[in-house]
Amino acid sequence: MTRGQSAQGLTGVTVGAACIVQRSYYDGLGRVETQVRNLVGDYSLSTPPDRDLTPPYEHPDQNIRMDTVYDSRGNQTDIIDSQGIVTHFAYDGMDRLERVIENYRPGLIPTDQVNVTTLYTYDARGNRLSIESARAVLHPELQLGKTTFTYDALGRLLSERDPLNHGVEYTYNLLGQRVVQRDAAGLETQFVYDALGRVEKIDYPGTGMDVSFRYYPTGQYRTMADGVGTTTWQYDGLERIEQVSDPFQQVVAYGYDGLGNRTRLIYPDARQVQYDYNALGQLVRVTDWNQQLTEYIFNATGQLHTMRRPNAVTSTYTYNDAG
Predict the structure, then answer these.
(1) Do 247 and 234 form a contact (C-beta atoms < 8 A)?
(2) Which of 29, 134, 243, 318 has the largest CB neighbor count within 10 A?
(3) Is 71 strand, coil or helix?
């Protein structure tokens, strides 16, 4: 695999192991304007190839192009797929998404196939109040309804209700933590917190499904107990995770060098992965339990130059003067 870069130093061209080329084309602000998969032709040109939109489409698997259009405020306004079909995004004065129009065809009357529109509304604080599906927009006589959201004075989500009037409601404590979640059937999930604001218990409806957590004084997870059993975490003196054991006593362990680099990953069946680093702390070698080797080679400036995989596939990376 070979990668090239644009004038801004952004990755522009990727050549895969099968010589399949993907190229990204950028605008003056460094945003992706066009992506072309399986690019055929001179990929060094600054303009992308045209779409093949004329029957009989001799090579539909080549030069598969997608374009993105932005407005002056940087909002994504259009995505144009390989067939030239446009999805249009419209925003309000606060740059909030107001509508998404699929198969956008300006000037045509909306149908189930053309100008398929989904609408969004917001309150004065920017919280989303509703989502109206394209079918509901097109057929108001069916009274299909909207998905609606309500909030409290602090902007916290209090409820969300779908077009069938199935709702989920939320309750908070004085610290702003969510303590109750009530579903459409009226069943409640309750959340309990410790004095430091960490989740201590999740009490699900019914029995046998509850989850409880314990923590080390340093704040890391110590145990998680659920209906299956207990998962346990252990850390070394530098608060690096040493091992995790699941409810079935299956253990995953980790080892580190003096610089804090992870050097070993040990699976429950004793299989090991070894990681080796150079003097600069860069990962240079990964060796699995079958002695399958992945190597990383860096250039003089510390950038990745070559990656050699166990399956004999080698990727080479090149850079321009911008790095």
Answers:
(1) no
(2) 134
(3) coil
Structure-token pair, residue 150: 């309500």
What residue spans define the domains of the chain?
7-75, 250-322
pLDDT, average across residues 126-142:
94
**Alpha-carbon dihedral sign for residues 269, 211, 195, 169:** positive
pLDDT digits (tens, 9 = 90+) for 262-284: 999 999 999 999 999 999 999 99
Residue 295's alpha-carbon distances to 2, 261, 274, 278, 311, in angstroms, are: 16, 17, 12, 12, 12
Write down the pTM of the prediction: 0.77
Report which of 36, 29, 28, 38 is spatially closest to residue 12, judged by C-alpha positions.
36
CA 54 – CA 59 distance, rounded (Å): 11
Please give the radius of gyration of the chain, using alpha carbons only, rounded to the nearest integer.
Answer: 27
Q: What is the average per-residue pLDDT within 211-219?
A: 96
Q: How far apart are CA 32 and CA 26, in angstroms?
A: 4
Alpha helix stretches (DSSP H) within 182-319:
none
Q: What is the dihedral of CA 107, 111, 116, 120, to 10 degrees?
A: 90
